[in-house]
Amino acid sequence: MELIKEIKTMQKISREKAVEKKTIGFVPTMGYLHEGHLKLVENSVKENDITVVSVFVNPTQFGPEEDYGEYPRDLERDLDLLRERNVDYVLYPAVEDVYPEGYATYVQVEKGTDVLCGRSRPNHFKGVTTIVSKLFNMVKPHRAYFGQKDGQQFLIIRQMVDDLNMDIEVVACPTAREEGGLAMSSRNKYLSPQEREAALVINRTLQKAKKWIEEGERDGWEIKKKMEREIRAEPLATLDYASVVSRESLQELGEIKGPIMIAIAAFIGSTRLIDNVWLEVK
Ligand code: AMP
Predict the structure, then answer these.
(1) In angstroms, rounded to a whole number, what is the distance separating the alpha carbons of residues 238 and 234?
(2) 216 C-alpha to center of ligand 1: Å?
């Protein structure tokens, strides 16, 4: 496994691999890897000749009051985990090289980015689509792997890839969970044992909502109200949103139908956690 810090070096390797007719699978991450990230890596290693994983905590997707400075980082541990999984290259560029002085270009998807997480994190998805586009230009992958856990992010990236004719297959992988159902996240590190227990309310509520729909409820506002009630009953949780949305428009649904996502974001103490469930409703 090779650690690559220079963007130009990565681009040279990608071009060479293309000449050799090797397929490149790519897993973008912000590091501090857990089993969820590693599942994406395993899929990429299985399905491609070469796997590249990037580790880059992207400043442009964090708001001014958010945890960019404190975001957990441990490169040596990440490298050990990736070596064990037979990754070929780890791209670890410096912030100053990704966003040099005078940097002025952003990629913005204009649908589904101002709802759910986009409402409380106004420039978040602009930062995400910009960095993912830039990383795609560095790595030139055939396939790129994302977690369903960040469901809105995946749907926005898929929209960007389609709209900009990026010749890349984007793959969504199921959410890896801790025992008890809490979605794995690098931010779980911030939780005290008591908060970790309280955080279970998020997935528990999603599972209840799924069951209500499976039992025949089709009123999206009713499900929303009931989910909000469940989250508010947990003293350590502060609700950001609980919504039932279309996976096509990302808009909230009055009548539940088609490919949908039930999504929740809540602060547990001061840690903001998100989770979601996907359903096909006839
Ligand atoms: P992050 O490092 O949080 O930016 O995540 C990098 C990638 O890993 C994204 O595509 C995430 O959706 C994915 N990911 C994060 N947590 C999980 C999880 N629990 N299960 C599956 N994928 C995940």
Answers:
(1) 8
(2) 31
Q: Topology of domain 186-276, per CATH?
A: Pantoate--beta-alanine Ligase; Chain: A,domain 2 (3.30.1300)
Pick the CATH number of 2-173 from 3.90.870.10, 3.40.1390.10, 3.40.50.620, 3.40.50.300: 3.40.50.620
Q: pLDDT per residue over 70-82, tens digit each?
A: 999 999 999 999 9
Beta bridge partners of 263: 243, 276
152 lines ligand 1 (CB under 6 A): no
Q: Give the β-pairing of 258-268 and 143-147.
A: unpaired
Active-site residue set: 37
pLDDT value, residue 121: 97
Q: What is the distance between the alpha carbons of residues 151 and 262, in angstroms, rounded to a whole number? A: 10
DSSP state string for 22-85? --EEEEEE-SS--HHHHHHHHHHHHH-SEEEEEE---GGGS-TTSSTTTS---HHHHHHHHHHT
Note the pTM of the prediction, 2 decimals.
0.98
Query: Predicted confidence band at 230 (pLDDT cuts at 50, 70, 90)?
Result: very high
Residues 110-143: tens digit of each pLDDT:
999 999 999 999 999 999 999 999 999 999 999 9
C-alpha distances (whole Å) from 20 to each of 93, 135, 139 are: 25, 21, 15
Contact yes or no for 58/131 (Cβ under 8 A): yes
* Beta carbon of 147 within 6 Å of any ligand 1 atom: yes
| Whether the Cβ atoms of residue 111 and residue 74 lie closer than 8 Å to each other | no
